[in-house]
């Protein structure tokens, strides 16, 4: 019984084809949470796949109805070995975005795992079936090597992540005691680079808002009325320019983050963006001046115009359009005053002379970030480096957004995310795939992490000793 045995068992899951068999079965379940008719298959994924895998390791499993009516259920599972051992909460989601089958190339299908060289194609291979299948197999490897886990584990799976995690916050709120743990370990999103084992400690938040400029006079002839009636498209374009300039720099101070903390800055000092094969060239001179590209993605806010519309560009007519609208997205790091965004944007627009523009917040998700100096971060970093023989890249937060608020804030857990995908994975797009070396390395490093969690030398153990 040794750490090495656990890692070897995990690698064996890859080398023997067992991981591939599990993934082929899971990918074949079209768990598209946007489609109401998916309800039976969403349920089946939890009962037949996740619960079966966990029951084999002695977990007690329960499928729990969603507190939001009509939304997919959750799976709660736990294996408590002893009260003094550390307790981890594991999370994953079994639903996927739409398959979009017609747009996959080379005869690939979203619902059939196809291995081409190092690429394992199939919907969910990056997000999230490939990732949680690695974690479940690593858990089984540790169980196989030790005959038990050596720690307590609680598991939460949802089937609605791709439709905004309905009910997840309410569930965490109502089951605080039952979900109590010492830390969260979960896997989603990409590594910073394909060959760099990565941890991230939270994510940027996202806020979608719609701006509408409308003419009370309705659409009017541009010759007879141009020059005396305000044009909503012109007004909106200038309002947008007052929010973000032509080089991507945010101009509304209220939506900027606080200064970058030193422990964040040092963690990302050496990171490069867009250097993997297939990555696009970065736009020169774009974004906040004086920051590195990594600081712009991981430690600053961005304001993107996602969509805009006025008149009919396919069939323009000589008229002042009645309505112009744009949907914008603020990606923000912790410390941003995003909850007051509507008031801040309205006040800014009024100051800039655009008081008549209507501002509506359409969706939002909070930013989270565990302190990079937290003892669980150093623990995980050490464990992964021991397993892989490589330095571990630590991102204070993901550039994208994940539902981490319920774990970090509602449950108050240190959150450690260990991604098993990479930036070129085509997540949410046709030809989504996992990368064989990343999956295999992920199996080993997760087995190492789970092994170490049961080996006594954890921040929780020190905490318990201190309390005595
Ligand atoms: Zn997703």
From TrEMBL:
SUPFAM superfamilies: Zn-dependent exopeptidases (SSF53187). It comes from the Bacteria. GO terms for molecular function: metal ion binding; peptidase activity. GO terms for biological process: proteolysis. Keywords: Hydrolase, Metal-binding, Protease. InterPro entries: ArgE/DapE_CS (IPR001261), Cyt/Met_Dipeptidase (IPR051458), Peptidase_M20 (IPR002933), Peptidase_M20_dimer (IPR011650). Residues 202-352 form the Peptidase M20 dimerisation domain. This is M20 family metallopeptidase. The lineage of its organism: Bacteria, Pseudomonadati, Pseudomonadota, Betaproteobacteria, Burkholderiales.
